[in-house]
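Format notes (please read before filing issues)

Several people have asked whether sequences and structure tokens are stored in separate files. They are not. Every record keeps both together, in the order shown below: the sequence lines, then the token lines. Line labels are part of the format and must not be stripped during preprocessing.
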Amino acid sequence: MKRFLIRILKALRYAVEGLVAALKIDLHFRINFFLWLSLALLSLLLLQKNKLLIFTINYFVIIVELINTSIEKAVDTATVEWKLTAKYAKDIACAATLFAGGFAGVVDTIYLLPELLKLLK
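Then the structure lines:
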């Protein structure tokens, strides 16, 4: 049991190290992460319903951005010269982030914009 707990703690440490690394090295991840934090706080403050929906959808964007960042870094490590397949891998991962972020943006706008406009009146 003790060995099992040690393995879990090591895995958690590696995950935290990965999050810190992504925050340090990837501007787009930092932007998405702080957008997620902002939208999570806004939804907690403004919404009576659908807080979990907003939180979950924007959390999904963070997950996709982490995968995108890891793919980009793996491709950069695997090759130093320009290759079309490396470009495809990076562009496709970026497209996944674009679609996830676009979907989150639409949902955020549908639920948060009316509440923000009420505050401005």
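For reference, the curators noted about this record: The mean pLDDT is 92. The helical segments are 2-25, 27-46, 51-78, 84-120.
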